[in-house]
Amino acid sequence: MMLRRSLARLSPLLSNAALRLNPISSSSRSFCSSSSSSSQTLSPTTSSSSSSKLDNDHAESSADSSPSVAISIDRSGLCNPPEHAHEPSSDSELVKHLKSIIKFRGGPISVAEYMEEVLTNPKSGFYINRDVFGTSGDFITSPEVSQMFGEMIGVWVMCLWEQMGQPPSVNLVELGPGRGTLMSDLLRGSSQFKNFTKSLHIHLVECSPVLQKIQYEKLKCTDESVDEETGAKSAVSAVTSTPVSWHASLDQVPSGSPTIIIAHEFFDALPIYQFQKGARGWSEKMVDVSEDSKFRFVLSPGPTPALLYLARRSQWAPREEVAKLEQIEVCPSAMDLTRKIAKRIDSDGGAALIIDYGKDGLVSDSLQAIRKHKFVHILDDPGSADLSAYVDFASIRHSAQEISENVAVHGPITQSQLLGSLGINFRVEKLLQNCTEEQAENLRTGYWRLVGDGEAPFWEGPDEQTPIGMGTRYLAMAIVNKKQGVPVAFQ
Predict the structure, then answer these.
(1) Where is coiled-coil annotated (predicted)?
(2) 292-328, pLDDT tens digit by residue?
(3) N or C end of the chain: smaller count of CB under 10 Å?
């Protein structure tokens, strides 16, 4: 009943919002599937060989400790070694960095450490120094597909705000806001709800300086300032005169006010550990450098500390589910982040909405790399492709429920169910009434990609550009303070 009343209020106002159309690409990050993974299944006997050759180099022995002849050595050339005696390396700075870590350790590194360096290395990480989103980037996310996505998330946030009793001050946090498109559409769609927008203080958790700048422009920010103590950047969005702040992590977002957190395609990029079952049990899958200086996957020759993560995750799964799998992925970072989110919601009130591709159970082998909208090998040219893995929604649920009895977890439900419950069908019908034929085609295509399943039946263009729906592939989960009740779309 509350949803119907809210939608009745929102529908006429949303219908007056400006139509924003985005170029549609046939390729998207939403097309990820575990079958496209470039990782390898390894023999349990595989182990690191990066340092074994070093031992052999020192295994020479002298034939006779008392030589009968004198040997004369000419050392004159040692003072003037020839320049460029070795072939110049074509490795990127990130590749050199990864190899130096492996060499320093004297053995392989975890997949989690490899992932973290590739994506967020301060100097050469994939997300750090460039815009990777959109048709000219490496993948397209739902907010870039259609303005309707951000508008519907705005409906969810406003309905939750009403359930919370319309507090005068709310922290609206987005984790990994990309170009800022979702937040921009959310603010534009809700701009006529003055009491709501007046209550907001937006906090964008973003580590990339390049993307921070793009978000600043997307939100039409002005009056920029920097906190001398924390270094946090702040501004005001001209869209709704809403204050905006940037932070490197959720820990830096001020507490004390009710908090609403949005995490869209954020958890899938958190570093994972991979494990493979063999004759001697479970072994950690790791990244090493082969004799020809190429990266390769190996299995740890013995137990590693990361096996504790596997043991913990396995406690939350039925024994038969674990037994039937040959490989398992575990994401401790997702568990830790979920606990932080749940603690914040427990103490300050509010909720979190997590939307990502994944499954409600153990994840087997889903790690994949995407470059320019195409799948590539995970170890190919690190730093030039996005790495992501399926989100284990079951582990998110258990991690949140462990924190407090005052926190409830709802879902996951499909993205199609979420957006349908929030009124996307009414929204697309309203937009189609006032647009050109080209705009109508883009709207229908974007709508299908957000809520459809499989190939669009109406498509008449090239086969390779057929829109593929992500409506059932993406899932949504809500973590809420029980005082607010069950959020809309999850009732």
Answers:
(1) none
(2) 889 999 999 889 999 999 999 999 999 999 999 999 9
(3) N
